[in-house]
Amino acid sequence: MVSKAADDDFLFLAEDETDSEAETQSSGEWHLLIVDDDEEIHTVTKLALSDLLVLDRKLVFHHAFSGKEALKFLVNNPYIAVILLDVVMESDDAGLKVVQQIRDELKMDEVRIVLRTGQPGYAPEESVIKEYDINDYKTKTELTRNKLVTAIISSIRSYQQIRTINQNRIGLQKIINAGANLLEQHSLHEFSEGVVTQISSLIGLHAEGVLCAQIEDDGSSSDNIYVLGAAGHYAPYIKCKLERLNNSRIIQQITTCLAERRHIFTDKDTVLYLGNIDHAAAVYIETNRPVEDFDRQLIEVFLSNISIGYENVTLFQQLKHAAYIDPLTKTPNRNEFTSLLQETRRLDPERNVAVLIDIDHFSDVNDGLGQETGNELLIAVTHRLVAQFGEIAQIGRIGADVFGLIGPEQALTPETLSGIFEMPFQCSEHSLQVNATFGFCRLRDSALHGLTILKHVYIALNRAKKHLAQNYEYYSAQMEEQMVDRLVMLRSLRSDFQKDKLQLWYQPQICLKSGNVLGMEALLRWPQPDGSFISPAVFIPLAEYSGLIIEIGDWVLQQACKQLQSLKTQGFAHLRIAVNVSMPQFRNHRFVQSVIDCVERYQVDPALLELEITESVVMDDPKIVIGALNKLKGFGIKVAIDDFGIGFSSLSYLQQLPLDRIKIDRAFIQDFDRPNGTLIAETIINLGQKLGLATIAEGIETKAQEDAVRAMGCEEVQGFMYAKPMTASDLVKFLSKS
C-alpha cells in the first residue's frame, strides 16, 4: 500500500506543468472547502490551485480537518461552490457520512463534492458513484494536478449551472406567486424580488447586491425612491428610502436611470429601467464587469415581457396604499400600524415599546380655527415626529388626533416625547402651543396579536387622561384586569336594572327644632344574591361613564314620585323626597321635560320633590346646569346642593344657582373632634343664613355632633343617630312610629 506521504507527491508530477484554460483576469470569487485530516494535503492542494481562474474568478480556500468540523463550517457558510472531501478521517467512512448529511440534513443540493481517498479498496468507486450525489471520486494517486484542475473546473461549471437553474426557478416562482396573490400585503415586494433574482440569473450572477427601486408620488428626487425588492446584502433595506443605503453611486445611478428612463451599462454595474412614465422602477445590479450584448438582449426581452405584470402589481399596490396609508400625513394608518405592531412584537419584543400620542383639546383647534388649520397642525406634528424619531421608530396616524410610534424603549420616553410639544407649531399665520397625553406599552408586556397590543396601549392612554399629576401611563396587566372587572360589573348592572333588581331606599331628614321628620333622601341600592350590596360609590360612576345613568335616573325619579303619591294616601302628604342628579342627566336634552312629565304623571306637589346636585356637577358645565335648574325651579321643584365645601366651586356660581338648601358634608361633621374642626361647618351654615338658604347637616351620629350643629344655627339633620337608610315598607313603619 502506498504511504500517505507518497500519495501527496502526485501534485508535483512533471505532466502537471501544462497551463490550465483559466483566464488571466479575475472579477469574482469561487469558494472552495478542503476537508482532510492531513494538514499537508491542505497545503499542497492550495499550492496547486492558487493561481487558477475559473470563469474569470479566482478561488478562495477554506479548511476543515474533520467531518464534524466541515459540517459546522457549512452551517454558517452555505456559499461554498466545491468541496474536496477525504473519505477516511476520524472514521473509515467519515467522508461518506458528511456527504449524506450535506444532502439530507443541510439540504445543500447545489454545492459540488469531489471525494478523494488514499484507500480505494474500502469504498468501491462504482457503488459510491451510484449511492451518493457527488461530482467525482478519485484516489489520491491518480488525481494529478492536471486532473485536479479539470475536476475543479468541471465542478464549478456544474455548480454554476445548478445555481442558475435554481435561481431561474426561484425568480419565476416569486413572480408567479406575486401575480397570483396581488391582494396580499407584500405582493409588490415579492414581485420585485423575483424580478431582480431572475435578471441576475440571466446574466450569470447569484442575486448578491441586487435591489429594485420605484418612484412613489411625483418627481425624481431620491427622497421619493423606495427599495421594493432586494437580494444579497441589500435585502434588509426593503421598504426603506433609497438614501438609507448610504451609497452615493447607487443613489446616483438609480436616480439617473429613472430620470432619463433608460438602461445604464458600465464596467461596475448595470441599471435597468422598468415600467412606464406612471409606474417606473430601476433594477440595480453589481456586475463588476461589462454585460455582454447577448445578455443585454436577454434582459430586454425579459423586461418587455414582465413590464405589464409590474404595472398591474403596482396598480394593486396603489389600492393597498390607499387602504394602509393615511392620506393626510402619508404615514401608516391604523390598519398598517396594527400590522407593524404585530411584526415588531414577533421580531424584537424585548427592547421595543408602542406609544400612542393624543393631542389635547384638538377639537378646539378645528372648531375655533377651522379644519384646514387642524390639518396643518397634524402635518406639523408629523414632521416633528419624523425629524426626531424617523430613523429609529415606525410612525403612524391611527385616529383623528392620535399618533402611534413603535421603537426602542430607551429612545421613546415621556421626556423625549414631551419635548416634541415644548415649542409651538406654526400653522399658516397661527402659532399653536399644544400639549399631548401619552400611553405606553412595552411589547414584552403585551400579547402577540397586533389588535391586542393596540388595545393595551389605548388602555394606558385612557388611564393617562385621568391623571392629574402626569400626562403619561405605562400599560400593566392589572389595568386590563380592572377594566375587565368594570365591564363585567357593568354588564351585571345593566342586566339587574332590566330585571328590576335595583332598589330605592330612604333615609329620613329631621327638623332640629321640632324633632319631626321633614323628608327623606332617596338612595339607590344594588343588592347581590348573597345578601350584600355593592356600594353606590362603585357602581354610580360606572353607570355615569356608560350612559346607563340616564335610564337609571329616570327610574329613580319615577320611584320617588310613586313614593310621594303613596305617602300622601297614607297620611304623610307633607313629606319631601330628595333625589340625586348626575351630570349626564343634565346633558340629556330631555332631562328637564322628563322631570316635569314625571311630576305631572303621578300628580305630586312639585315642591315635595327636591333635586340634589354636587359641586362637581355644577363646575362641569355651569351654563347647562344653571339653565336646567332655573326651568325646574320655575315649575316649583326644589333644589339642594350636596356635599357643599368638598369641591372647589366658585361662590359666584352659588349666587346664580336657584337653591333652596345647602347640605353640609359628613366629612366636616366628623372633624368636630379636631382643633378648629367646627370652623368650616359653621362658615357654611352662616353662608346659608346670609343667602336665605336652609341648611342640613348629614352624617350626624352622636349627641355631641347634634348639639354642635344646633348651636351653629343649623336647621335640619340626617344621619345614623336618627335612622339608617331603609326600604319603602320600613319607612312607612318608621313614620308611623314617629
UniProtKB/TrEMBL annotation:
<feature type="modified residue" description="4-aspartylphosphate">
    <location>
        <position position="86"/>
    </location>
</feature>
<keyword id="KW-0597">Phosphoprotein</keyword>
<dbReference type="Pfam" id="PF00990">
    <property type="entry name" value="GGDEF"/>
</dbReference>
<dbReference type="InterPro" id="IPR011006">
    <property type="entry name" value="CheY-like_superfamily"/>
</dbReference>
<dbReference type="InterPro" id="IPR029787">
    <property type="entry name" value="Nucleotide_cyclase"/>
</dbReference>
<dbReference type="InterPro" id="IPR021800">
    <property type="entry name" value="DUF3369"/>
</dbReference>
<dbReference type="InterPro" id="IPR050706">
    <property type="entry name" value="Cyclic-di-GMP_PDE-like"/>
</dbReference>
<dbReference type="InterPro" id="IPR035919">
    <property type="entry name" value="EAL_sf"/>
</dbReference>
<feature type="domain" description="GGDEF">
    <location>
        <begin position="350"/>
        <end position="477"/>
    </location>
</feature>
<dbReference type="InterPro" id="IPR001633">
    <property type="entry name" value="EAL_dom"/>
</dbReference>
<protein>
    <submittedName>
        <fullName>Diguanylate cyclase (GGDEF)-like protein</fullName>
    </submittedName>
</protein>
<dbReference type="InterPro" id="IPR000160">
    <property type="entry name" value="GGDEF_dom"/>
</dbReference>
<dbReference type="InterPro" id="IPR001789">
    <property type="entry name" value="Sig_transdc_resp-reg_receiver"/>
</dbReference>
<feature type="domain" description="EAL">
    <location>
        <begin position="486"/>
        <end position="738"/>
    </location>
</feature>
<dbReference type="InterPro" id="IPR043128">
    <property type="entry name" value="Rev_trsase/Diguanyl_cyclase"/>
</dbReference>
<feature type="domain" description="Response regulatory">
    <location>
        <begin position="31"/>
        <end position="155"/>
    </location>
</feature>
<dbReference type="Pfam" id="PF11849">
    <property type="entry name" value="DUF3369"/>
</dbReference>
<dbReference type="Pfam" id="PF00563">
    <property type="entry name" value="EAL"/>
</dbReference>
